[in-house]
Design brief:
Elements lengths: L16 H6 L5 H25 L4 H12 L3 H10 L3 H11 L5 H19 L3 H31 L7 H54 L5
Helix pairs in contact: 2-7, 2-8, 3-4, 3-8, 4-5, 5-6, 5-8, 6-8, 7-8
């Protein structure tokens, strides 16, 4: 016969992940909502930033050739067919050709600000989630511990160690869940910020080349 001391947890007492999360109490609901929102923002922003970074390699060369040839309308049409922040900024500059160079630069800069705002959409919310989720987890732990001590105070006679440990581990579940959501969303936020920085660098590089193109001496 197997010694029961060598089998600390029988199979019928094992706890599934779903049961563990359910034992976390009502504070698990906002943490779960934040997790779903965080996943949605991360996936949506990743797809948006990947699309924004995919300016065709031939785009800049075609724009240069068309501008040098004086085919401004064809260059505008090319920008309209290319759905990227770089194309929209250059399109604005092309539409202002004939104006002073300073006005062209200001127009492109204004479009650039709008594009950066679109690129950074909901990133602040993701950063908020990375900070709020652990706080909600800690709050759940505090309320859980309060409930556990209330149950202990209402217990007649000696307090069962099982009652004490059950109340504590249920309270700690929310902390673990909150930290899990907070850490992953924080990493996701920093990853997206790095992608935004790369797209902005590409935008600036292409705009500088375009402004230099407009300053080339006419033949």
């Amino acid at each position: 016969m197997q010694d029961p001391l060598l089998d600390p947890m029988p199979a019928d007492e094992s706890i599934s992940l779903l049961e563990l999360l359910t034992n976390g109490g009502y504070m698990m609901v906002p943490i779960l909502i934040l997790w779903i929102v965080g996943i949605y923002i991360f996936v949506e922003r990743t797809r948006t930033l990947s699309a924004a970074a995919k300016t065709p390699d031939s785009f800049k060369d075609e724009i240069k050739n068309l501008v040098r040839a004086g085919s401004i309308q064809e260059a505008l049409n090319l920008c309209l067919r290319t759905n990227t922040p770089v194309a929209r900024m250059i399109e604005k500059g092309l539409s202002r050709i004939g104006s002073p160079l300073k006005n062209i630069e200001v127009s492109i800069e204004n479009i650039g600000k709008l594009e950066i705002y679109r690129l950074e959409k909901n990133l602040n919310l993701l950063a908020t989630i990375s900070g709020a989720a652990p706080m909600i987890g800690f709050l759940g732990t505090v309320t859980g511990m309060i409930q556990a001590f209330i149950a202990i105070a209402q217990e007649d006679g000696a307090v069962s160690p099982k009652l004490l440990s059950a109340g504590i581990y249920e309270a700690m579940i929310t902390t673990a869940a909150g930290l899990f959501v907070g850490i992953l969303t924080y990493l996701g936020y920093n990853y997206l910020i790095s992608k935004v920085g790369k797209v902005i660098h590409t935008m600036e590089s292409n705009v500088i080349d375009f402004i230099d193109l407009l300053q080339e001496p006419t033949k």
